Amino acid sequence: MKRTLSFGPSRGTALVVAGTGLVAGCYGLVRLAYGLFLPDVQASLDLGSAAAGHVSSGASLAYCLGALAGTTARTRARLLVVLALLTAALGCAGMAAAPGPAVFAVSAVLASVAAGAASPALVELVARNLDAAAAPRAQTVVNSGTGPGLVAAGLLALVVLPDWRTGVAVGGALTAAAAVAVLLLDRAPGARRHDGDAPAAGARWVRALAAPAAGSLLLGAASAVVWTFGRTRLQEAGVSSTASTWAWIALGLGGALTVATAGAVSRADPARAWLGCTLAAAVATAALGPAAAHLSVAVAACLVFGWGFVAATSALIAWTGVLAPERVAAGTSLLFVTLVLGQALGSSAAGEIASRAGLATTFVVMAAVGVVAAGLGWRPADASPDANPDVSPAARRRPRAPAPGASG
Prior knowledge:
Elements: H1 11-31, H2 33-45, H3 49-69, H4 73-97, H5 101-111, H6 113-129, H7 135-143, H8 146-160, H9 164-185, H10 204-208, H11 210-236, H12 241-256, H13 258-267, H14 270-287, H15 295-323, H16 328-357, H17 359-375, H18 393-397
């Protein structure tokens, strides 16, 4: 009998806590912490803006490899968690010990595989360990781990900077510990999910995800400038190192707030939730361009961006649940691959634009890309999944799940 998610002690609750910790580690302490530590890394290893953007792009491509491996999550979820553990630990160890930019770059790329592998694995593990009624809320809680991870990374930075090497090493160790906890709390391997076992017909589920895939690609490109150069932009504008770190913590708090707003967002149509959340992130990105020198504006923009980005990634998975319910884990992998492919393109583009026009202009340009991404969620008021011929019959028969899962 499956255990349900509750506030009392249970194996299911513990798994959700550990899964949230794994997301917090893979994203907040490992992958996205690159931008947090970047100013100190650049000073230590003589890494220029263009090169820093290319390293971020390489890390994004590595994430995609992990997410592609995640398409096997239905049968190999535990193996994917092991992959996340090894790549995070080895990558962080390599970065912490890097004698120069080359070793640092290779290690940063390796570490980014962890997040791509962990996301679809956790979708599967949560689905098979919790009852159908509890799983959607649990997925949202796990997905929100990005926010607390960013907060933890920011607090860690306040303690250790400018010693970024210690920060990276601690982040890798905590991520590995969370992965071990997930493996210990998963019930017997081979257990089947309580839903989504019916095979999808042909490639119909892939076609059905065309709009969210295009949106995720553009959101990835637009968001890359914040994740890679956000703290650098604040310091360039005259904000102190400590204050810029607090702004990063605000970014994480915004992501964590998605738990509080999950009910309202999940009751909305996923496409419209995507539109609103992505538009919020785009406006916040634009504000970090010309207004970065005003600390109160910058902190508020980081808060809004963190909420908008994490909530948008949740909306992506809810959108998948409507359009391709037979392949939620595989659909999650597909959309997160396109999201991070967009980040790979966006990081390099932002680095090149910044080297020519400056970071302030770069933030405004990338915000415009975010507005286009948001627009892909617009549709007439009378539109519904039932009117879409690419939506599977199962999607038309099933009520929409109240919330998504995995990570952004």
